[in-house]
Specification:
Elements (H helix, E strand, L loop, with lengths): L2 E3 L4 H9 L19 H6 L2 E9 L9 H17 L5 E3 L14 E8 L8 H9 L2 E5 L22 H13 L2 E3 L5 H10 L3 E3 L16 H9 L3 E4 L15 H13 L6 E3 L19 H8 L5 H17 L4
Parallel strand pairs: 1-2, 2-4, 3-4, 4-5, 5-6, 6-7, 7-8, 8-9
Helix pairs in contact: 1-3
GO molecular function: metallodipeptidase activity
Protein name: Membrane dipeptidase
InterPro entries: Metal_Hydrolase (IPR032466), Pept_M19 (IPR008257)
């Protein structure tokens, strides 16, 4: 069964190897250190993989834009150009045009720190193909507060302007790392909200997860919540877990009315511990097979890829 995965950090991992933070240069085609290398994506039947541009918070402000450009360059020179089966998704309708054997690659931005206060840089990111933007990581920036910022403020005036520009460009606004107040500000403004990698707070009280009111608000907007595979977001204060533990979150989201709004956002290459039998993208069909024990084939196809098609690709011009 085909898969759409809305979040991975392969670009950052490859960038680290290129900058010699690691001794080994990672090759997207087959590096075993990459949870989302090409071979793993093929084996796991991942049809569309989202690749996040993410700048670590300790990078100096004046260097953040350069780091973002490096990751975009990696997206082209390491992922797209050497691998003709990888196809750059520049418009949402491109997903429907993928042929057998082709894998769509979607460029996203995790944290507006990359463009600072410069809307010209943001517009350039749109032109370069960024299709989804999370305003923050866990910290605060010029757009909003993240989930770990103690003051818990919402969107700034600048952040609201960014959301409006996302709307105009058919770009998703990702709520996964936002403070609770910023989440509600986004829900008032965004045409196309998404939680690219979040789970249910009621089952695992981590600040990165969404509470019941947030979940219900997303579903009322026909927005997707893509479950994340990192054990501490699945099982409270644990570094391990099973596919059954992840399915508990899917069950809970379904109970809140989200059977048509659930997807997958693995966070592969950004996580350091893993669910048993779901350690990389090659293992995706293990999750599918277990889901088929509890849900109809139609419902599982929805989780795997069709919900995203129906809620975004079929909606955004």
């Amino acid at each position: 069964m085909n898969i759409i995965d809305t979040h991975c950090d392969a670009l950052l991992k490859i960038q680290y190897s290129k900058r010699q933070y690691d001794k080994k240069l990672l090759q997207f085609k087959d590096a075993q250190e990459l949870n989302t290398n090409l071979g793993f994506l093929k084996k796991g039947k991942v049809k569309v993989q989202f690749f996040a541009i993410f700048i670590m918070p300790d990078i100096p402000v004046e260097a953040k834009w350069q780091h973002a450009l490096e990751q975009i360059d990696i997206f082209h020179t390491d992922i797209l150009e050497p691998n003709p089966e990888m196809k750059h998704i520049k418009e949402w309708q491109d997903i429907k045009k993928l042929k057998n054997g082709e894998i769509g690659a979607v460029l996203t931005l995790e944290g507006a720190d990359a463009f600072g206060s410069d809307l010209a840089k943001l517009r350039l990111l749109y032109r370069l193909g960024v299709m989804s933007i999370g305003l923050t990581w866990n910290n605060a920036n010029l757009c909003a507060d993240g989930v770990e910022e103690p003051r818990g403020a919402g969107l700034t005036a600048f952040g609201k302007e960014v959301v409006q520009l996302n709307n105009e460009h058919g770009v998703l606004t990702d709520v996964s790392h936002l403070s609770v107040k910023a989440f509600w500000d986004v829900m008032e403004l965004a045409k196309y909200p998404i939680a690219s990698h979040s789970n249910a707070y009621s089952l695992c009280p981590h600040p990165r997860n969404l509470n019941d009111e947030q979940i219900k608000a997303m579903f009322e907007r026909n927005a997707m919540i893509d479950v994340v595979f990192w054990p501490p977001f699945i099982n409270h204060e644990r570094q391990d877990g099973s596919i059954e533990d992840l399915i508990r979150h899917i069950d809970y989201l379904c109970e809140l009315g989200g059977v048509r709004n659930i997807g997958f956002g693995s966070d592969f290459d950004g996580i350091s511990s893993f669910i048993t039998d779901l350690e990389d993208a090659s293992k995706y069909q293990n999750l599918i097979n277990d889901l088929l024990k509890y849900y109809s084939e139609e419902e599982v196809k929805g989780f795997a890829y069709l919900n995203f098609i129906n809620q975004y690709v079929n909606v955004i011009d």
